[in-house]
């Protein structure tokens, strides 16, 4: 990957808050057009990372390039190329959805069509409603609308679906996919593994200020997942299992021994959740054991 293809490049990023080391040498490379997930437990340093990428927080060490510039000295034009979705946007409660989106469009040199953006986030039916009358999930979609109204090349989302019900979360995923299909580079932090797996082309797992794994979700599972477990039953009724790098070999051996069908045969692989818990130090056992 050439640096020119990178929307975000971070090398050796460090950030301290007094005695707390929030980021301890973070490296990231985020390609143009990809959806990149930053996953990690509470306090891992996700928000700090995103705020530094936005240019809203200083750093103590490291190199950071976002759309070709250092966020610390990005400037207005650079800022207009980046979409930020604020956690608690203080949009005026008395304005309607449509009025608000139109109002924010004026801040950008090259904004999208407000009507189109209201449709994109699925708020057509609420276009005439006042903000104070929106539900939490609808409110969050409006926040996303305000994040994309400037037609950003890069969208930064910090825990976008916290507090959503399952249906709202699915709808939000659709929205992210739509934006990704349009070519927007998207960086999102999340606590939710299923969300990271459903949306991300690649993801980084952060724990205590360090990237402990990075890659495509399936690849992460393969590289860090460890071994498969073969389960079966012995004729006397005893359930057995064996952890192995070569489950096919184990099954072949069992087939010979049982001379055919193996009672209770099941092969389990570590889930991404097993991998995640192990990588973030929240699980000590072998991944095969965590599935049970
Ligand atoms: N403004 C601040 N002042 C002091 N310490 C801070 C500040 N912001 C964050 N921290 C600390 O830095 C560490 C990383 O925090 P950060 O908010 O980046 O983590 P996070 O991964 O986003 O967590 P969460 O999932 O809980 O949102 C934590 O230990 C946190 O307590």
From TrEMBL:
The cellular location(s) given in this protein's UniProt record come to:
Cell membrane
One GO BP on record is: response to antibiotic
Q: Where is the ABC transporter domain?
A: 8-233
Q: Does the keyword Thylakoid apply?
A: no
The molecular function GO annotations come to: ABC-type xenobiotic transporter activity; ATP binding; ATP hydrolysis activity
Q: Name one GO cellular component term.
A: plasma membrane
Cell membrane as a keyword?
Answer: yes
- Give UniProt keywords alphabetically: Antibiotic resistance, ATP-binding, Cell membrane, Membrane, Nucleotide-binding, Translocase, Transport
- Top-level lineage group: Bacteria
PANTHER family per the UniProt record, alphabetical: ABC TRANSPORTER ATP-BINDING PROTEIN
State the family named in the UniProt similarity comment for this chain.
Answer: Belongs to the ABC transporter superfamily. Drug exporter-1 (DrugE1) (TC 3.A.1.105) family.
Its protein name is: ABC-type xenobiotic transporter
């Amino acid at each position: 990957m050439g640096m020119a293809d990178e929307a975000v490049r971070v090398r050796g990023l460090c950030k301290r808050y007094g005695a707390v080391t929030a980021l301890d040498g973070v490296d990231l490379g985020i390609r143009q057009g990809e959806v990149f997930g930053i996953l990690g437990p509470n306090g891992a340093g996700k928000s700090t990372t995103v705020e530094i990428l936005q240019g809203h927080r200083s750093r103590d060490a490291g190199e950071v390039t976002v759309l070709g510039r250092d966020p610390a000295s990005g400037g207005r034009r650079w800022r207009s190329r980046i979409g930020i979705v604020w956690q608690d946007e203080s949009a005026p409660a008395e304005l309607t959805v449509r009025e608000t989106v139109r109002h924010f469009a004026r801040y950008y040199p090259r904004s999208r069509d407000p009507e189109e953006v209201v449709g994109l986030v699925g708020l057509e039916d609420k276009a005439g409603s006042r903000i104070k009358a929106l539900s939490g999930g609808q409110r969050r979609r409006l926040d996303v609308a305000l994040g994309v109204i400037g037609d950003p090349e890069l969208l930064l989302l910090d825990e976008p679906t916290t507090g959503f019900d399952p249906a709202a979360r699915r709808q939000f995923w659709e929205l992210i996919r739509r934006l990704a299909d349009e070519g927007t580079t998207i960086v999102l932090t999340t606590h939710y593994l299923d969300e990271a797996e459903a949306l991300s082309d690649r993801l980084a797992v952060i724990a205590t200020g360090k990237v402990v794994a990075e890659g495509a979700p399936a690849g992460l599972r393969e590289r860090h997942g460890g071994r498969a477990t073969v389960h079966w039953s012995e004729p006397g009724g005893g359930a057995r299992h064996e952890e192995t790098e070569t489950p096919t070999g184990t099954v072949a051996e069992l087939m010979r021994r049982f001379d055919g069908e193996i009672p209770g045969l099941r092969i389990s692989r570590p889930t991404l959740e097993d991998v995640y818990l192990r990588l973030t130090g929240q699980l000590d056992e072998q991944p095969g054991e965590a599935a049970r």
